[in-house]
Amino acid sequence: MSEVDLSGEKGWQPFDAPALVGSSLRFVSGDPEGDRFRVSYYRKPDSALVARIWFGPETEGPPEHAHGGSMAAVLDEVLGLAAWSAGYAIVVANLNINFRCLLPIMQVVQVDTEIVSVDGRKVLVRGKIWDGQEKVYTEADCLCIEIQAV
Ligand SMILES: CCCCCCCCCCCCCCCC(=O)SCCNC(=O)CCNC(=O)[C@H](O)C(C)(C)COP(=O)(O)OP(=O)(O)OC[C@H]1O[C@@H](n2cnc3c(N)ncnc32)[C@H](O)[C@@H]1OP(=O)(O)O
């Protein structure tokens, strides 16, 4: 497979997910040379977590486009991780996704995240998979629930 450029923008800081949550998080980001997903995480200057993600041939659903479940898996990991990176030890309780446009595979896209609210143990994270310019493929609201430290 040809080289995939997952570099971030100027001012983004590389973010080491395994250093924060351990090495169990392999389903989406665990195979950086593979044909499923390739992922790089960053923090923006406002500290929001952002990901650059390549959807490889193994994510195909509709011909030449990403399977909805592959996008759900990405949003589950990235939005959950956004809560962890903001200091909340959570699991995802509810993930509500709107698929807006078919996402072509074999290209790098971006996932942006925002912590919308914190109410007791409930942390609401919003995010989108988009081209980083204007085209939004998928939007999601992710309800995370704080757990006891494990
Ligand atoms: C053991 C794991 C260690 C992990 C350590 C490192 C992991 C590193 C992770 C890296 C980043 C993450 C990336 C991947 C994220 C995943 O994929 S996590 C895996 C997928 N998620 C799951 O399997 C979660 C399964 N569900 C559960 O475990 C339990 O249902 C939960 C979410 C812990 C909640 O159970 P609970 O602690 O008994 O809480 P409960 O009292 O029912 O609810 C608390 C509040 O939340 C509300 N609530 C709960 N669920 C819902 C819901 N579905 N809809 C609406 N409201 C809800 C309740 O109404 C309640 O509200 P209030 O009454 O306080 O207003």
What are the salient characteristics of this protein?
cytoplasm; seven-stranded antiparallel beta sheet; 39% strand; 2 helices; Thiol Ester Dehydrase, Chain A; fatty acid metabolism; 150 residues; alpha+beta; HotDog_dom_sf; 7 strands; binds Palmitoyl-CoA; Acyl-coenzyme A thioesterase THEM4; membrane; globular
What does the model show?
With 150 residues, the chain is α+β, with helices and mostly antiparallel strands. The protein has one domain: Hotdog Thioesterase (Thiol Ester Dehydrase, Chain A), CATH 3.10.129. The chain is built from 2 helices and 7 strands; from the N terminus they run E-H-E-E-H-E-E-E-E. The chain has a 7-stranded antiparallel beta sheet with strand order 1-2-3-5-6-7-4, covered by helices on one side. The longest helix is centred in the middle third of the chain and has 18 residues, at 68-85. The N and C termini lie far apart (38 Å). Bound molecules: Palmitoyl-CoA (PKZ). Residues 21, 25, 76-77, 80-81, 84, 91-94, 120-122, 143, 145, 147, 150 line the site of Palmitoyl-CoA.
Topology:
Elements (H helix, E strand, L loop, with lengths): L12 E2 L2 H5 L15 E7 L5 E7 L12 H18 L4 E10 L8 E12 L2 E9 L5 E11 L4
Antiparallel strand pairs: 1-2, 2-3, 3-5, 4-7, 5-6, 6-7
The structure holds Palmitoyl-CoA (PKZ).
How would you characterize the largest beta sheet?
Answer: 7 strands, antiparallel
Sum up the overall morphology in one term: globular
Strand order of the largest sheet: 1-2-3-5-6-7-4
- Fourth-tier CATH superfamily name: Hotdog Thioesterase
Q: Rg to the nearest angstrom?
A: 15 Å
Number of strands: 7
Looking at the overall shape, the CATH architecture is Roll
Ligand roster: Palmitoyl-CoA
- Mind telling me the CATH class? Alpha Beta
Number of domains: 1
Order of helices and strands: EHEEHEEEE
User: If you consult CATH, what is the topology?
Assistant: Thiol Ester Dehydrase, Chain A
Average pLDDT: 96
How much strand content do the residues show?
35-45%
Instruction: Name the helicity range.
Output: 10-25%
Instruction: Count the DSSP helices.
Output: 2
Which structural category do the helix and sheet elements fall into? alpha+beta
| Low-pLDDT segments | none
N-end to C-end Cα span? 38 Å
Pfam family, one: 4HBT
Keywords: Apoptosis, Cell membrane, Cell projection, Cytoplasm, Fatty acid metabolism, Hydrolase, Lipid metabolism, Membrane, Transit peptide
Main location: membrane
GO molecular function, one term: thiolester hydrolase activity
